[in-house]
Batch of 2 targets.
Target 1
Amino acid sequence: MKLKVDKYGQLLILSSFLWGTSFVAAKIGVTNVDPYYLGMWRWVIGAEVLLIIAFAMKTFETKIFRDPMVWGIGFLNAIGLTLQNVGLTTTTATNTVLLVDINVVFVAVISYFVLNERASRYTVLGLILGLLGVMYVATGGDMSTLASGSLIGNILVFSGGIVWAFYIVYQKKLVDRRTEPFMTSAAVVTTAAVTSVPLALAFGHAAALDMAGGLSILYLGVVCTGAAWLLYIMGLKGMGATDSSIILLLEIVFAMIFALIILGEVPGWPTLIGAVLIVLAIVLVNVRSNGKGKSSEDKPKVT
């Protein structure tokens, strides 16, 4: 047995680092910007960044926008982020992290039916440890803390997590059909931006921005959407949907670190225990039985 974190795992870890910062930025954002407009501007800016990259890499094409799956994925993205942002206005960032990232369970189930992915024993154990780690980090080992936020807010962010579970699976299916990540990333984020505009116009209350709100939108759009999404899709190309979703649990650890640095939140022992469990989950997902890649039991099941 050999432990190996390949380039795809490294790209996913880097994207989870960037997405880990987004929870603090989004919490700051929803206190200064209407949550619907926050999501819209985040997608619009991210789409512009990725379209520029696609042009620069000479991979821009319009035919991808004729693919119904691209629009379906964009719709799931927009709905998931909208549910998270609206939920964040009435619940805590900690609850949001837990209830969104719990979608790894749903990813494993959906992947079995949609992608015919068969989880190895390492993936299953990593899944269990990852979920335990999420629970510890987000709740401090006390599940009663879920009651500290608004019930409606908790339901909204949990629903967003379920929506994103479907997104992860179908994004993997799309990535497997395409060979380059640049236009794929740009198309997915662009369709999410287009979908988010009518949502903001229909349900948003105020489009005004102050300095804090504008900076949070700029950061979320350029870094947490443009850069992170590109890294994610590049990593997803060589990793299963279930394994990638477990690796992305590492964003919980990063989110807590940035909450400490920026918001002054001091993590207790339960948080540190959860961080260790999540790191162990990442390690297990990247276990190889030999030096040539995944073992045969890690390969997708052929039907």
Target 2
Amino acid sequence: MGIVKINLHKISASRNLDSKGGQIKINNNVSITDVQDMDFSVDGKKGLRFNFLFNCNYEPGLGKAEVEGQVMYVDEEKKVSELKSTWDKGKQIPFDVMEQIVNAALHKGHIQAIKISEDVNLPSPLPLPKINRQASEEATAKAGKK
């Protein structure tokens, strides 16, 4: 089955008003902080909650944005039990499942970070598309030659 839902429970952003201007470096990171069993009432299926922390740091010391939440994952009982056991033993998850979970957390985290970064006057953590007049004029000229 896979991911069934993503819940958020903390969203925050802060900006350091005393920081100096200049070149800004934005570091985005997501980490899985815990894996918990989830009650799920479908025969043969079992679920896990993957708790995550997405953070976006603006260097040097300009500010940060953080998003905490849970990715709800459902699959066959046997597979989910193996995932939980692997996590409990060494805080690891097989790549195929981890890829799904981390991508979902990154997606949700980036969307929220874009929203809240604007509220505290921080740059977007992802570059937003822009119209380039020169490139647009060149594309129009090429299209006119055909």
